[in-house]
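hey can u check if this looks right to u? its 282 residues, i copy pasted from the old doc so theres a chance i mangled smth
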Amino acid sequence: MSIFDISVFQKQGMMPMLAIDHQDSFQKLLHPENPDAAGDTEIIALKEQIIKAAAPYCSGILLDIPTALPAYQNLQQQGIALPSYFLTYTTTSYSEVGVGERVTHLAYHAKELKAHRAQGTKLFLYVHPKATTFKEQIAVAKQAQEESHAMGLPFLLEPVIYERSKEDDKAALLLEAIGMLKQAGVEPEVWKVEYPGSAEGCDQMRALVLPAPWILLSRGVDFEQFAQGMQVAADHGACGFFVGRALWQEAATLQGNARETFLKITIPERLQVLVKTLKPKI
C-alpha cells in the first residue's frame, strides 16, 4: 500500500490529519518578541505553504476561519487537490473564572461553520474534573455537539487538562474528565486527545471512548517525542493523529532556502514516519 493513497487509509478507518487552526500560538512562533507584529498576510502565506506541503499525506485538515481557511481557499483557486476540512468553534482557548479555573465560549455556531463549507466541527475544551466550572464546560461541549448534529456535521472534541496543582496527574485526570463527559451525554464522532502517558493509558483510553475512535494530538511537543508517542498510541488503539506544531513549528523561524527545504522535504518525511505507524481498524 502506498502511503500516498489517502483513500485507502480512510476506508480502513485511519485518520492522518493536519492541524493548522492555531492563532495566538502561531503569532508567537513567528514573532516571539512581539506576537502582534504577525499580521494576517504573513500568517496566511505561511499557512498556505504548510497546507500545500502536508496535503498529499493527510485525509483531513483542521482550520481556523480567520487565517487557515483563506490559505486553504487560495490553494483551491490554484487547482491544488486538498482533503476535506474541519473548522474550529473557538478563537481563544478560554477565559479565566475565579482562581485558576477556565471556561470556554463558542466564537461561532455550527450554522456559520457549515456556511463556510466545513465538513465537520471541532471544539477545543480546557477541562479539569475537580473544577467548579467543569459543569459549564460540559454544557458548552453538549451545545457544540447538538449544533453540529443539527447541521448534519460530525463533531470532534479536544478535551485538554489544565493544571490546578503541581501534583495533578494529567493522564488520570483526562480519563476521569472524558468519563464524566460521556456520562453527561457528550459523544463526539472522534476524540482528539493528548498522549495518555503510557501504553496502559492508551488501552484505558480506547476502552473508555468506544465505540468512537480516538486520535492523538501533538500539543506543541517536538517531533521526535510525538512520533514516539504515536507509535505506542497506534499499537494500543489510536486510529490516527491531528498533528500541528510538532510537524511544522520550525517553519515559523526558518527563512529563505532553509524554510523552503523544511517545507518540501522535512514535512513530507515527518508525515510519512507518522503514517507508517497507523494500523487498520479492527
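The longest strand covers residues 120-127.
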